[in-house]
Amino acid sequence: MAYNAVIMDDIKAEGERLNALLAELAQEIGTALKGKAKDKLSQPERRMYVRATFATIEAWIYVMKQIALRSHPDPNCRTISEAERAFAQEHEYKLTDSGDVEIRRTKISLEANLRFGFKLLAKAGSVPPELDVSGTEWQSFKRAIKIRDRITHPKGLSDLNIADEDFNDVTAGFGWVLISYTKLFTAIVLKAKSEAEDNSHPDITNPSTT
Q: What is the SS3 assignment for 92?
């Protein structure tokens, strides 16, 4: 995963822009919580917390896919396939009856999009994907998605209620994504630093490195 200076500058610039987005969303979560314990939060505040949390998770997914694409901008590279590149951009193609090609925004479930984002970035960074779906946190995350969907498309007053167990699931799922996201980025950064150090100290006994 050796990147040239132009690509590294591009990744850095994109990273700074996306970090500003994440910082703003994190501030929204803080605004929703207002430093209160969950039993002190009103139902509107709990719903605001759920929405802000999922907005942040979806932003993380977007960040992972964008960094992966920025790190391998050549559409002909073998690291990221044409299909993966299209899904990362959330595009799908359809041939109309008139023979024209239409580009549409594809619909991807949040579960699938999260797993894809982690796999794509790990592949781009040549590290193992840091997303363990074997534990209870994954189950909490899936329940949290249903909670988010329920308050987003309520069919009755009861659908707007965020019980303590609902709040706990959202918090556990969010924490799991955050930890997994941090582990993945740390692994990529460490690998990049290791490769940079190796390249700065060529093996003088090997003519191919001099």
A: strand
Tell me the percentage of the chain whose pLDDT exceeds 70.
87
**For residue 52, what are its two tokens?**
């802000």
pLDDT over threshold 50, residue 9: yes
Task: Tell me how far apart the alpha carbons of residues 12 and 134 are, in angstroms, rounded to a whole number.
Answer: 33
Q: Is the dihedral of CA 119, 122, 124, 126 positive or negative?
A: negative
Amino acid present at 89: Q
Contacts 24+ apart (CB under 8 A), 146-153: 147/50, 148/50, 148/51, 148/54, 151/47, 151/50, 151/51, 152/51
Chain segment 196-210, per-residue pLDDT in tens: 777 665 554 454 544
Q: 138-164: b or e for each residue (b if 16 or more CB lie within 10 Å)?
A: bebbebbbebbebbeeeeeeeeeebee
Angle 110-125/164-200 helices, nearest 10 degrees? 20
CA distance 164 to 38: 8
pTM of the model: 0.80
What ranges do the domains of the chain cover? 5-194
